[in-house]
Design brief:
It contains eleven helices and 13 strands. The protein is α+β, with helices and mostly antiparallel strands. The chain has three domains: 176 residues, PAS domain (Beta-Lactamase, 2-Layer Sandwich); 123 residues; 146 residues, 2-Layer Sandwich (Heat Shock Protein 90), CATH 3.30.565.10. Strand 5 and strand 6 form a beta hairpin. The longest helix is centred in the middle third of the chain and has 79 residues. The mean pLDDT is 78.
Length: 488
């Protein structure tokens, strides 16, 4: 039997409970209505005797012959209806005459003002449980004044006997169904609770850290679905816990590696500072050597045998000094001075500066500026150096055959983009991976610092630099600069 069928039977049993209750309420309402009808019938019966009895009663009390005359009327009334007793009272409530099936002394006195007392449901219920009949009355009128009353009392069994039996039968039936439904529901819920309790206990064990817990699948299909879902969840939790442990292990290994890299970078930064100091001092010495070499060359005659050697010394000294200067530009921690300005003059000036070299290398240059390019917060000197490096690299890449260099300045959202497109030989994917790394170069006489300086300038402004190229298709260097103001 599936859980769905069990719940259906349980609901059916529970539905019987209110149905039985409604039946009991309906029976109870019938009992109340029956008693109300008896009140009205009794009042009508009493009213049939009242006109004749009122001739023997006056305002001051009953006449001497009233008892016998009224008692005869009352006896006829008892024989005409299933009454227990009937009696007459005067205005003061004293009994005038009484007719009873059990004895004359059973007629209680009472004021004639309480002719039809209102009954509550509690009184009607109490009449079912206690031997109490229904008393009805009708007034005795003389000269339009109340001088007494005729009262009748129905026998208790006549009033509530059948109703009480019917009510008790309904109560027994309702009680039987209630007990049966409760017992059946208790059995069903006990079975359901056992399976759910096992799932709850297993969930607590999972919360305490037990891994891979699996429960036996019950026969009930719905509970089986619940247990299967729990087993699946437990298996997934175990798999995810294992995956988390693996990731934590990898993360710890990466943290350890990054820690070593940070320490190494710190040492390299220290060595870089020392190297920058050495480079500065060596640059000064090289400038001194180049100066004295120039003096000696001016004093030597043109045909002196040592003049070519000194010229070689001067040339290599100049080259070494240039390399030291580039290294210092890259390694020096320069404080940038930025201001809100347009980049177009900086771009045009950089292209103009490399113009003579481009003409000598047979390279055609052009500048294209898109309208609406926003000004940005920038260090013009630092960007000028970066753009010069991009221009020089492009011209050198197109030697000796020449080509075309196109520089574009356009808007990019709130920022801008500067593109240097050349028609040179291009580069493969491996070169593109390392082209911005310091001291990486494919030129025989290159230093490998030009594009590293470009990237440093772009990142200093919060931007980026990227390259798109393919062998034989030229190269496109794209510098992106943001339009937001930056604090330096």
């Amino acid at each position: 039997m599936t859980l769905r069928l069990k719940l259906f039977l349980l609901i059916a049993g529970i539905t019987v409970f209110p149905a039985t209750g409604v039946t009991a309420v309906a029976l109870w309402r019938d009992v109340q209505r029956g008693q109300e009808l008896l009140y009205r019938e009794g009042a009508m019966l009493a009213a049939t005797v009242a006109p004749g009895a009122s001739r023997f009663v006056v305002v001051d009390g009953a006449r001497p012959e009233a008892r016998d005359a009224i008692e005869v009327m009352l006896q006829r009334l008892l024989r005409s209806a299933p009454l227990e007793r009937a009696w007459a009272v005067d205005r003061s409530g004293a009994v005038i005459a009484c007719a009873s099936t059990t004895g004359e002394g059973d007629c209680p006195p009472g004021m004639p003002s309480a002719f039809a007392p209102a009954e509550s449901p509690v009184q009607a219920l109490r009449r079912l449980l206690e031997p109490e009949g229904i008393v009805a009355s009708a007034p005795l009128l003389r000269d339009e004044a109340v001088v007494g009353a005729i009262r009748i009392a129905y026998a208790h069994e006549e009033v509530v006997g059948s109703a009480r039996r019917l009510a008790w039968s309904a109560a027994v039936v309702a009680g039987f169904w209630i007990l049966l439904g409760q017992a059946f529901g208790a059995i069903l819920f006990a079975g359901i609770a056992r399976s759910i309790t096992r799932v709850v206990e297993a969930a607590e064990q999972l919360a305490e850290g037990e891994q891979g817990l699996q429960l036996d699948v019950p026969q009930d299909r719905e509970l089986a679905d619940l247990v299967v879902a729990f087993n699946r969840m437990s298996a997934r939790l175990k798999a995810r816990r294992d995956e988390n442990e693996r990731l934590i292990g990898e993360l710890e290994a990466r943290v350890a590696q990054k820690t070593r890299e940070v320490l190494r970078a710190d040492r390299l930064a220290t060595l870089g500072g020392i190297a920058a100091g050495f480079a500065h001092e060596l640059g000064n010495s090289l400038n001194v050597i180049r100066g004295y070499t120039g003096v000696v060359l001016r004093e030597l005659p043109e045909d002196h045998a040592n003049k070519p050697d000194l010229e070689a010394v001067k040339r290599e000294t100049k080259r070494a000094a240039s390399l030291m200067e580039r290294f210092l530009v890259f390694a020096r921690s320069k404080v940038t001075t930025t201001q809100r300005q347009s980049i177009e003059p900086v771009v045009r000036e950089a292209v103009e500066v490399v113009g003579p070299a481009a003409a000598q290398a047979k390279v055609e240059t052009s500048v294209e500026v898109e309208g609406g390019v926003p000004p940005i917060q920038a260090d013009a000197e630092l960007l000028r150096q970066a753009f010069l490096n991009l221009g020089v690299n492009a011209i050198q890449a197109m030697q000796p055959g020449g080509g075309k260099l196109t520089v574009k300045l356009r808007r990019d959202g709130t920022g801008l983009v500067v593109e240097f497109q050349d028609s040179g030989p291009g580069m493969d994917a491996e070169v593109q991976k390392h082209v911005f790394e310091p001291f990486y170069t494919t030129k025989a006489s290159g230093t490998g610092l030009g594009l590293a300086i470009v990237r440093q300038a772009a990142e200093t402004h919060g931007g980026t630099v990227e390259v798109e190229s393919a062998p034989g298709r030229g190269a496109l260097f794209r510098v992106r600069l943001p339009g937001e103001e930056r604090k330096t």
